[in-house]
């Protein structure tokens, strides 16, 4: 299976790097500065699951079309931030032959509309990942702690040879993975958890443990999670008890230093996927007539951050 990974940041760098480490046919589509660094230093992963230093193949937008014409890609793993989606779609388009499948692992759901419109729904799998990883200042992929898992599947449900093929490759690479027969539900399980985590930790500018230690903090996180769960139910994807319990336990874990990747970005002064995650969840709540004051507060807070950032 010939794979193109767009983005060698936290997620693309980690999962693409693990695939490359096991000898899979992986090429990174990156911008020129990252291509230069990867050619010079290789892809470096620093992880509690084991460090890796891997020589990787890279392409940039100007060289992709020729490379894809010579040897078409079977799978494109899309690992950009949501605010980079439109140019990223343009960038991978030359690699999208009739038989090429695209697997996005972005957080949130909104990107599927744009991907379907450009490539056709049948060529776009559903995907998500659980990991805390970031591109460190020295260019290495810093995996900040367990887990590092990827879940993917046919959006109409069931299995397929392309899903089984990628699952086999993940198994060979030692990547914790799940080929899901119901990825649409898995996406809502994650989205409802992540939106609560991102809204709560960004609004409070604190880890889960610090929030929960505050008077009223646990009740706040639980109520925020309930707002997101109500949206999932209204969208026809009620989160099952098992997934709900796991999510709730991590949102209320007293000793937890977990923060959403959105808070890490915010603390570093970077752009955030506010509209894609917290804004989208709130707007769905409002469309369903669900009262969501905590999501609303987080959305205002994040917009104010973005406004300040743009004005700085
Ligand atoms: N990091 C995490 O722990 C987790 C992240 N996620 C989600 O995964 C998605 C990706 O996040 P993450 O990996 O952290 O993001 P990063 O910002 O770390 O990496 C994204 C990379 O995509 C590259 N990129 C964007 N557009 C293009 C383009 N047109 N051509 C080439 N490269 C491009 C960027 O390159 P450049 O540096 O040149 O801009 C950047 O290095 C997000 O939706 C995020 O919410 C999900 C779970 C956990
Ligand atoms: C929920 C979590 C931590 C899982 O990977 C995540 O997706 C994020 O922080 O963006």
Automatic annotation (TrEMBL):
Catalytic activity: (R)-pantoate + NADP(+) = 2-dehydropantoate + NADPH + H(+)
GO cellular component, one term: cytoplasm
Protein name: 2-dehydropantoate 2-reductase
Gene coding for it: panE
GO biological process: pantothenate biosynthetic process
Pathway(s): Cofactor biosynthesis; (R)-pantothenate biosynthesis; (R)-pantoate from 3-methyl-2-oxobutanoate: step 2/2
PANTHER family recorded: 2-DEHYDROPANTOATE 2-REDUCTASE, PROBABLE 2-DEHYDROPANTOATE 2-REDUCTASE
Domain Ketopantoate reductase N-terminal: 3-156
The keyword Oxidoreductase belongs to this UniProt entry's keyword annotation: yes
Domain Ketopantoate reductase C-terminal per the UniProt entry, residue ranges: 182-306
GO molecular function: 2-dehydropantoate 2-reductase activity
Family as reported in the entry's similarity comment: Belongs to the ketopantoate reductase family.
Organism encoding this protein: Luteimonas viscosa
Keywords: NADP, Oxidoreductase, Pantothenate biosynthesis
Functional note: Catalyzes the NADPH-dependent reduction of ketopantoate into pantoic acid.
Family matches, as NCBIfam families: apbA_panE, PRK06522.2-5
EC number(s) from the headed UniProt entry: 1.1.1.169
